[in-house]
Amino acid sequence: RPVKSRPSAQVNAEFVQGLSRGVMGLTQEAVDALEELPAEKKVEAYKTALLQDSATDAESSKAKEAALSALVALLVEAGKGEELAALLQTLRPLFQSLPKAKTAKLVRSIIDAVAKIPGTTELQMKVCLEQVEWARAEKRAFLRQRIELRLASLYLETKNYPQALVLISTLLTEVKRLDDKLLLVDVHLIESKVHAALRNLPKAKAGLTAARTAANSIYVPPSLQWQIDAQSGVLHAQEKDYKTAYSYFFEAFEQMSTCGEAGAVKALKYMLLCKIMTNATEDVQAIVNTKGGLKHAGLDTEAMCAVANAHLKRSLKDFQKALDNYQEQLVQDPIIHTHLNALYNTLMEQNLCRLIEPYSRVEIAHLAKLMELPLQQVEAKLSEMILDAKFLGILDQGAGCLLVFEDVPVDKIYDTSLKTITNMSKVVDSLFLKSQKIVA
User: Fold this and answer.
1) How far apart are CA 231 and CA 267, in angstroms?
2) Residue 91: which of 49, 41, 50 has the closest Cα?
3) Helices within 116-221 (DSSP H only)
4) How far apart (Å, rounded) are the C-alpha atoms in residues 15 and 10?
5) What pLDDT score was predicted for residue 53?
6) Which residue of 59, 83, 131, 385 is surrounded by the most CB atoms within 10 Å?
């Protein structure tokens, strides 16, 4: 007689009941059965399955990892960052039964999952601090050091630089003692980024050199190597050596394009920035139209093209429009924003010098109208240029005018006369000494 098959809903219910009573171990078949549950019941079913099963064999451990991955994916999709953070507390009994290496992998994967939810930076810091304390209490040094590294990068992201440097200093002492080269590369790289953000270029370069030295003796994964190359490019760009910076950004872009990582877009954006800063704006569109550029085309490349077009036209209005339209891509990136600010100031100075060249007296309002900029901004820039001796002039604020003076050539006759008098003095002194010897 044919055996009647039971409905899948009934099978799933039996699995869940068996798991909750502890009479059935967690297997891959059970995890697959839980996948078919309604969405509102999945989360509790996964938690129950993970906590009730006490088996530690290889099959059960693999099934637990699959169940935890599915649970984390559900919470990330729902945007429940607080529940993910609480999950780390709930699953601590489970972590006690797992190997330390497996536990470290699972804890870090959950912290990474929290980072995927937008606007959870503060929550990430809170979770990292809690897990550092737990790892210290449980004497899990490997896990604690890597969470502390993540915490240091979060301090950098939130511009809490003093706290980041204190944490990095402690980490460096421990990691050097353990001789963990790969972790040492990560720590030195974060150290370099913090000092670069503080505009301490010598220490930033020292940190990067230390990271490169440690990386030379081990295999460095492409995801880390591109960060080293990108940081080298950032430091060279700060020194205004944009050609060398471009070569480093190009290396980083090639590595990320091969691996299909998201960092390729950032490296491409920095490449375009270097071309703009070296006045090679015609190369920007050519790079964007290459195979790699088209692959990563998006708002970032559009933003850099808009800046390049504004620079090519020498139009401050278009430049400001690009900054307003692409705030997230340009203004919120501190590296891009710093260099574009310098470029904007340079463009403004060049335009002002070109406009005031034919005049000896000109209204400031007229200059503001020609440049299509606010009067106060133009007046402040003219004042700054006069103080920096970019041209000779004064601001007549009562009349609202700029008085420009001609550059008076320096007459060299005075310097020549002083040199002649000095030499004659030396001759007279010499003759006086000789006359004294004759008299004696």
Assistant:
1) 10
2) 50
3) 121-137, 141-157, 161-178, 181-197, 201-215
4) 9
5) 59
6) 131
